[in-house]
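ingest -> validate -> predict -> emit
validate: passed (alphabet ok, no gaps, 157 aa)
predict: started
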Amino acid sequence: MAEDTVKVKKGGARSAARLGAVQALYQMHLSGETAALVIHEFLQHRLGQEIEGAQYTDADREFFADIVQGVTARLDEINGHISDWLSGEWTLERLELLVLIILRAGIYELIARPDVPTKVIIDEYVDVAHAFFEDTKPSFVNGVLDKVAQHIRMVSS
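emit:
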């Protein structure tokens, strides 16, 4: 996931936090580093910084850390929600890693952040998917998050 291939749309601090959280979770998966270490690195050296001539939007740092820590802490629960709504022969292992991480972050917010409207969560993570993909993956993210949201938000209300 080369940083120069990411298409970032202008957004607010929470949008930047979501994108940063997806990148941090991706880095954790590839490197095996802990959430605490990666969060520290992102807070000190990436979020809101200028890297190779590109100025990164400053993120809502608490929101960023909450997503990274929350996904890590509730990974089994989140993966269960994803598995419940995959159709046919799709499994977690068949999903492209970045798509899986985007879904995990979105589902964490659906579970743990009732203060954020469902539509905002889905739209934001579809935008994150669009930052990395031009094919049908953003639509796939939209479909899975919508199905999970209908179940989670209906059950919890």
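The longest helix spans residues 137-156.
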